[in-house]
Specification:
mainly alpha
Length: 238
């Protein structure tokens, strides 16, 4: 089924998706061979990319990606590479720098895609949604890396799971599915989450500081989601 709002012409987005798949295959395959990583790195990265490509197609529809979308897609490839590398977590010094380097690059690109969109006047609701969904995925993947490296317990996954729990709660409380007004508090806390989780993955960051630091991040994020939930619920009740 073609997503709503598109025409019946051939998929214009297909070349963008194919190029991205080729780039990811080369990157994941090259790392796997060069660093002698587990065989599952490339298949897992490609499986994650298949899910990403489906999301992009559903959000963007039948059109070529804008320059800002392509920057976001590049960030998405870094996140999918992080997913693929999860089986190699803790396998040696050659891998130790990868989650930090890839995560930091993705974090920097998160600011660049917005700048490109404003600079070139190519902002779209679909592009903003793509960017937001990728932010949520990146938080979950970074939390998974902290768990895989035994830097924090399973509770750290709540940082990445909050958004999805909020979405599920919307099926019980429809008011939670209503659009939220722009919020500087939400924007700052989200940015702090991503940047701080990347820093916690730095090889030289003291391991003893990771759990309390991650706990503070979880408290901040929980506060933000609770405020949004209460706001939406009160608005619906009036």
């Amino acid at each position: 089924m073609v997503p709503p709002g598109t025409d019946d012409s051939p998929l214009q987005i297909l070349p963008d998706l194919l190029v991205a798949a080729i780039v990811l295959t080369a990157a994941a395959g090259g790392l796997q061979q060069t660093l002698d990583l587990p065989a599952g790195v490339l298949p897992l990265a490609l499986a994650a990319y298949a899910a990403l490509a489906l999301l992009v197609w559903r959000l963007v529809g039948n059109r070529v990606l804008t320059p800002a979308d392509r920057v976001t897609m590049g960030r998405g490839l870094l996140v999918m590479l992080l997913v693929g590398l999860l089986p190699a977590a803790g396998s040696g010094p050659n891998v130790a720098m990868l989650p930090f380097a890839l995560g930091m690059t993705a974090f920097v690109l998160d600011g660049i895609d917005g700048w490109v969109a404003r600079r070139l006047g190519c902002q779209t609701p679909a592009g903003a949604r793509f960017d937001m969904e990728l932010d949520a995925v990146l938080l979950l993947v970074l939390a998974l890396w902290l768990l895989r490296l035994d830097l924090a317990g399973a509770w750290v996954l709540a940082i990445g799971g909050w958004r999805y729990a909020f979405i599920l709660a919307g099926y019980w409380r429809p008011a939670l599915r209503r659009p939220l007004p722009p919020s500087q508090r939400r924007r700052v806390i989200c940015g702090v989450q991503t940047g701080a989780l990347v820093v916690l993955l730095a090889p030289d960051f003291p391991a003893a500081w990771v759990p309390p630091s991650a706990a503070v991040l979880l408290i901040l994020l929980s506060y933000s989601f609770i405020v949004d939930g209460v706001t939406l619920s009160r608005t619906a009740d009036h």
